[in-house]
């Protein structure tokens, strides 16, 4: 006879200081006893962009093991789940708040998180190694996004991957970003013979950084309010093409989610020339709710 078990979880809004904005995340601080199949079913039930499950680390240098699920699949790495889970671990006292640097064990490997102390702490993740992929035909990108060719800047769209393969498409202005959209048919046309699922990230350069949107319908995410895993590659792409407008190019902000009324602010710090010493992506986390899920395993 199976017995019903209770599994507490937290919901937090990531990359915002305001509740009900940013990117919501569900975190199960103690997922011991929950198998991977059930984790996926829970993520589908909650239907947020991602849900995380915290387990004891298998590495001595990591504070916790974190498994990340969208409603459709497990992810090797994702940004807002890394930031949000680190916040919950600190807030719950699972990791001492005096710990200003910690490593989280994710499927991609250890991911470093740094904490800036303060009344509203800001958490920063270190972007994993960014791999450059193929370029895409601009007219095809315009077509699948429902845009005109002249809505795109004269920069070839490109696939970059820091654990989450993403096609970056530079647009001329915020209006073009807000008009963009891609569905499952468009995604399949864009990736054609490519077998790996991917996201499409559109943005327009601004005086403070970028105005952005990200689409991932094949992951079960029609649009993502904030995409930390793609923001490091965004910074690399913008630097490579001279799209960062501030004086030294080492700090800027990507505003994402505004079109879907979930405004998020993703801060970027570039270390070393052109990010040679790494790219950090940071933001605030706003606690929203505490709940418990009951079911029999």
Summarize this structure as a short list of keywords or feature phrases.
297 residues; Diaminopimelate Epimerase, Chain A, domain 1; alpha+beta; 18-stranded mixed beta sheet; 2 domains
Give a verbal description of the structure.
- This protein is globular.
- Helix content is 20%, strand content 38%.
- It has two domains: 4-127 and 284-296, Diaminopimelate Epimerase, Chain A, domain 1; 131-277, Diaminopimelate Epimerase, Chain A, domain 1 (Roll), CATH 3.10.310.10.
- Helix 3 (138-144) packs antiparallel against helix 5 (184-191).
- It is α+β, with helices and mostly antiparallel strands.
- Helix 1 links the parallel strand 2 and strand 3.
- Residue-averaged pLDDT, rounded? 93
CATH fold group of the largest domain: Diaminopimelate Epimerase, Chain A, domain 1
Question: SSE string, helix = H, strand = E?
Answer: EEHEEEHEEEEHEEHHEEEHEEEE
- Whole-number total of structural domains: 2
The total count of helices amounts to 6
- Note the beta-strand portion: 35-45%
Helical fraction: 10-25%
Structural class comes to alpha+beta
Oligomer: single chain
Quick summary:
The protein has 2 domains: 4-127 and 284-296, Roll (Diaminopimelate Epimerase, Chain A, domain 1); 131-277, Diaminopimelate Epimerase, Chain A, domain 1.
């Amino acid at each position: 006879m199976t017995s019903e078990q209770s599994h507490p979880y937290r919901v937090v809004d990531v990359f915002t200081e305001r509740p009900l904005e940013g990117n919501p995340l569900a975190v199960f601080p103690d997922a011991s006893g929950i198998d991977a199949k059930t984790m996926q079913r829970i993520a589908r039930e909650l239907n947020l962009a991602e849900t995380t499950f915290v387990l004891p680390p298998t590495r001595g240098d990591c504070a916790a093991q974190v498994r990340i699920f969208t409603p459709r699949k497990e992810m090797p790495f994702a940004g807002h789940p890394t930031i949000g889970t680190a916040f919950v671990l600190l807030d719950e006292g699972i990791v001492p708040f005096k710990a200003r640097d910690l490593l989280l064990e994710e499927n991609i490997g250890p991911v470093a998180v740094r904490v800036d102390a303060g009344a509203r702490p800001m958490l920063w993740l270190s972007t994993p190694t960014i791999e450059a992929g193929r370029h895409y035909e601009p007219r095809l990108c315009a077509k699948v996004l429902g845009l005109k060719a002249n809505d795109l800047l004269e920069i070839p769209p490109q696939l970059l991957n820091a654990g989450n393969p993403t096609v970056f498409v530079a647009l001329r202005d915020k209006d073009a970003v807000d008009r963009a959209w891609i569905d499952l048919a468009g995604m399949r046309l864009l990736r054609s013979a490519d077998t790996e699922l991917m996201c499409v990230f559109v943005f327009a350069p601004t005086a403070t950084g970028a105005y952005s949107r990200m689409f991932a319908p094949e992951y079960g995410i029609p649009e993502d309010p904030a995409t930390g895993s793609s923001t490091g590659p965004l910074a690399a792409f913008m630097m490579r093409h001279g799209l960062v407008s501030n004086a030294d190019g080492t700090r800027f902000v990507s505003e994402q989610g505004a079109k879907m009324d979930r405004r998020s602010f993703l801060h970027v710090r570039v270390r070393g020339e052109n990010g040679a010493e790494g790219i950090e992506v940071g933001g605030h986390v706003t606690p929203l709710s505490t709940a418990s899920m009951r079911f029999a395993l």
